[in-house]
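Researcher: Next entry in the queue.
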Amino acid sequence: MNDISEAAKAVVRRNTEEVQGGGNFELFEELFADDFLDHTPQPGGTPDKAGARALYHRLREAFPDFRPEIRWQATDGNLVTTYKIYHGTHLAEFLGVPATGKEIHFETVDAMRVVDGKITEHWGVANLYSLMEQLGAKPQVGAR
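Model: Structure for this entry, 144 residues:
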């Protein structure tokens, strides 16, 4: 693996562990490029740096113990793909669901492009159906 891939992977890992998991928003400002573009923003979000920051804040407010578990990462040059499982306790409203106190987990796969040490682009898919099901907001699969 080349140095560019290793450096990009380290930036994404720091974002996952220290920003998402640790709530270090000063580091967020350092790691995300000002012209960051999210190709898959969450419902109601914006596809820019402010939208990513707002999403991270919403996650940490709804799940104060929010913690990511990186299962694997793969790189293609400066593009880093990460498969992770998020864990947390639902203690405030999220996606319209009032706090339930339930412990949750859901899977996410995302790809982030890193240029000159900054995250410039993001594509991602989160298993929000599983999350909503755990919060009691969606019907159980197979339920009648």
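Model: The chain has a mean pLDDT of 94.
Researcher: Noted, moving on.
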